[in-house]
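Task: sequence design from structure.
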């Protein structure tokens, strides 16, 4: 079972990611937890939930996604962190959080696979 977290403050983006990820992993047992705030994702991880994949928006209203990733990094060392952002220029700043990937929302269908 692959445990996946998707965190974005825009519900349509969360649903889109869930749909696309499920389609890509068709035939693979997976569980996707959706979060509309960075605080909710943080609380889940600090409560002990383990995710193999974490899709995280950078521009969240409650916390900056890069700051959050750096804060939770000690708890998600074995997780693959993937930033999903409409802020293409944030890619260089995102390196500080040691992400596995940086996906642009504008090119999600091309870059997600």
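Answer:
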């Amino acid at each position: 079972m692959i445990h996946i977290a998707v965190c974005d403050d825009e519900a349509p983006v969360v649903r889109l990611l869930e749909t696309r990820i499920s389609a890509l992993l068709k035939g693979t047992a997976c569980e996707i937890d959706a979060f509309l705030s960075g605080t909710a994702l943080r609380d889940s991880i600090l409560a002990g939930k383990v995710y193999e994949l974490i899709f995280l928006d950078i521009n969240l209203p409650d916390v900056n996604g890069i700051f959050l990733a750096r804060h939770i990094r000690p708890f998600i060392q074995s997780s693959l962190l993937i930033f999903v952002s409409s802020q293409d220029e944030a890619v260089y700043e995102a390196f500080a959080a040691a992400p596995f990937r940086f996906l642009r929302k504008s090119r999600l269908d091309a870059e997600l696979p």
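DSSP finds five helices and five strands in the chain.
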